[in-house]
């Protein structure tokens, strides 16, 4: 793999992937990003100019996508509208980017016979009961709850159809909740860290018993690279690192690590249709491809993430006020 097109590479996971690829391989990288509210050009600062290029544009622009795909060896498709709360307020861009954008990309990789890795989420499987010993496996039935997860499920099914009907060389991964540097302040962990840095109290939706299965973004990205290099074409791999925690525990841990009383948070309006629990069984990825996560201690990974937001205020400051104003209007 010598030249890689990363869609959505100015967002959270895609920008960390660009850094990861340029640091750990010899490949050259092109990022295609529409630079929506979720993108941050500062996330791409410091990448080597001779091996990296940013192209501003949409995955829905068929001519641009066709031209870019034609001159790369592989595409890793991160571009998406990614925030559940936004999908409840306005689903239209989720349908456009996540479904139509994936269709346009599939037509281009099909035409040029280029390898594709499609990035997806565990949310396509719906949610699990809190006391259910089960985890999601590649055999779990799709049962998405929100417009966001339904749009991601749709995109996965398009990829599978293009593999089966047209022989597209694609793999899919469904990963659990990521944390780490360069995540937008609308998401749970960066929102609470930056609220505390601003001298305000964290905001927990409802009772906070909802469980998410946390994985460090670098572990997600090392798994993506492993699948890109060694995954079986047409296969779906689940990525997770056994990091189940409820939201209340996560907020209390952030408060503790930031030297605050652990009860210094507020309960705010719950998310409509709020998924209860996600949990990934990554046995196939571990056993078939020999992948292992490096960040096995969530407390340490979270402490490093807090340090990153403390030291990079100029990165998150421009997005913070508008994000909080939108939440405040919903009582969240
Ligand atoms: P993000 O919102 O931080 O970044 C998304 C990026 O896509 C942004 O830079 C945005 O500008 C870009 N984008 C949006 N519409 C576009 C378009 N039409 N054309 C080109 N670029 C466009 O999201 P993220 O958290 O980095 O998620 C990246 C991918 O990983 C998504 O596909 C998401 O579904 C998936 N995923 C995320 C998580 C998580 O915990 N964040 C977990 C599993 C899977
Ligand atoms: O202020 C908050 N308070 C709160 O309690 C926010 C922003 C969130 N929450 C809760 C809702 C969820 O149960 O925290 C949990 C995590 O919320 P998000 O960070 O919005 O993530 P989630 O909805 O779980 O989805 C994330 O993981 C899967 C990503 O945003 C998706 O893109 C990915 O597919």
TrEMBL record:
Protein name: dTDP-glucose 4,6-dehydratase
CDD domains in UniProt: dTDP_GD_SDR_e
Keyword Mitochondrion among UniProt keywords: no
Organism: Cutibacterium equinum
Keyword hit for DNA damage: no
GO molecular function: dTDP-glucose 4,6-dehydratase activity
Span of domain NAD(P)-binding: 5-301
EC number: 4.2.1.46
InterPro entries noted in UniProt: dTDP_Gluc_deHydtase (IPR005888), NAD(P)-bd_dom (IPR016040), NAD(P)-bd_dom_sf (IPR036291)
Keywords from the UniProt entry: Lyase, NAD
Catalysed transformations (reactions): dTDP-alpha-D-glucose = dTDP-4-dehydro-6-deoxy-alpha-D-glucose + H2O
Listed cofactors: NAD(+)
Classification via NCBIfam families: dTDP_gluc_dehyt (TIGR01181)
EC class (word): lyase
Family: Belongs to the NAD(P)-dependent epimerase/dehydratase family. dTDP-glucose dehydratase subfamily.
Gene3D superfamilies, sorted: NAD(P)-binding Rossmann-like Domain (3.40.50.720), UDP-galactose 4-epimerase, domain 1 (3.90.25.10)
Pfam families hit by this protein: GDP_Man_Dehyd
